[in-house]
Amino acid sequence: MTLYDETLDALREVEHRIPFNRTLGVEMTRFDADGVAMTLPMRDDLVGNWTRGNLHGGVISATLDLVGGMVAIHAAVARGYLDSVERIREAFTSMGTIDLRIDYLRPALGEHFLATGHALRVGRSVTVTRMELRDPDDVLCSVGTGAYRVDAG
């Protein structure tokens, strides 16, 4: 098993231990050299505008923030800053969002959504990320940038 495989397993465990992530219903579908991807199924309790039935902006923001945080961990592993599952878990306990900006480009409509992200800048303590949320037709609904504190030693 590679460090990426071990990291993915550890992040899935962390992802599911956070109650709000379970509430959102997100699932990590990719964690590789190209970045991170997560799916979000649409449910009635995630609707923001009941007349249109679109995904709530807060749900979009929380999902993109989650993707950005996972990208920050991914980037630290890819750079070799975090070289074991124990160090990854340790870094996760102290990580946090420094800044988050979300641009809502169009209403997010559909049965499920794909949120992806990649690193723009990686440092030992701060990583800047870019995230996107797309609908089932691959239409870009929202984009975000985030800065995350990751204590990579």
H and E order:
HHEEEEHHEEEE
Q: What quaternary form is this? A: single chain
Radius of gyration: 15 Å
Mean pLDDT: 88
Largest sheet: 6 strands, antiparallel
Q: What's the arrangement of secondary structure elements?
A:
Blueprint: H1 3-17, H2 19-24, E1 27-32, E2 35-41, E3 47-49, E4 54-55, H3 57-78, H4 85-94, E5 96-104, E6 112-122, E7 126-134, E8 140-149
Antiparallel strand pairs: 1-2, 2-6, 3-4, 5-8, 6-7, 7-8
Commentary on this structure:
By secondary structure, this protein is an alpha+beta fold. The protein starts with a helix and ends with a strand. Strand 6 (112-122) and strand 7 (126-134) form a beta hairpin. The strands form two sheets. The chain has a six-stranded antiparallel β-sheet. A two-stranded antiparallel sheet has the order 3-4. It has four helices and eight strands. It is globular.
